[in-house]
Amino acid sequence: MILKQNNFSHLTAKEREFLSFPAKRVKEMGLLSGDILDFGCGFGKDVELLSQQGLSVEGYDKHYQPKYPEKQYDTIICFYVLNVLLPEEQSKVLMEISALLKANGKAYFAVRRDLVYEGYRTHKVHKKATYQTNVILPFKSIFRNDFCEIYEYQHFNQLKKENSDCPFCNPSSKTELILESAQAYSLFDKYPVNKGHALIIPKRHVSGFFELSFKEQSSCLFMLNEVKKEIQKRFNPDGFNIGINVGEKAGQTVFHVHIHLIPRYSGDVDDPRGGVRGVIPEKRDY
């Protein structure tokens, strides 16, 4: 059964009278601190019980508790959410959580490890088609058994990595990350052409865009769409230029592929006609 939309993922939420297994596990490990967000909290039982134990916890769920968070958090938990989402929905959740997490915060993702098959199935109770899939994340695994795996996520620029001269493999911990997914991240250009000039960067060290895998290219372009929304909200530009320099003769100076998203504003140049054709100035007008 093939569906274009995953309309019934919320039906997988379960009523409980006790803490979920991953919530109990991360609490026992002492990983819940500061302001905590339960992203995809379902009916909110973990939020209720953790709050009763003295923790500062808020819940968000697109269907059951739809008021979107308005601040950033020290700790974010996301339990058994990704397993019932399509790949593009999973990426959106990762990016949303990256934006809601404080610069030095940590997020914990619990995914199921007991799924027998992937795809749509008819829910036993609700008789609706619900989706499920196995999920493997490129983050640090801190717990695993036959039923569950828990990953710890930190912003890409907060992780200690091997020595490298590449500024995009080791971005400064003081740099503001705009969004991050499993495959890519985005930040503001250090030398912006215009206010809000952003870069979308794959995490794997690859020189040129055409050397990326299809999955990596897709991830970068998906993030490009989401970063555009964020830039539009923050700076309200009148247009955009999108550019990728591939090779020294095309102007590439940092040989780790990156996509430029450059906001444009009314009056920022006398005559904007021709846009990216201006890379060869005498060919801009036609």
UniProtKB/TrEMBL annotation:
SUPFAM superfamilies in the cross-refs: HIT-like, S-adenosyl-L-methionine-dependent methyltransferases
A GO molecular-function annotation: catalytic activity
Species whose genome carries this gene: Algoriphagus formosus
Protein name: HIT domain-containing protein
Annotated motif Histidine triad motif, positions: 256-260
Annotated TM spans: none
Gene3D superfamilies per record: HIT-like, Vaccinia Virus protein VP39
Pfam families for this protein: HIT, Methyltransf_23
Active-site residues annotated for this sequence: H258
Domain HIT: from-to ranges: 164-271
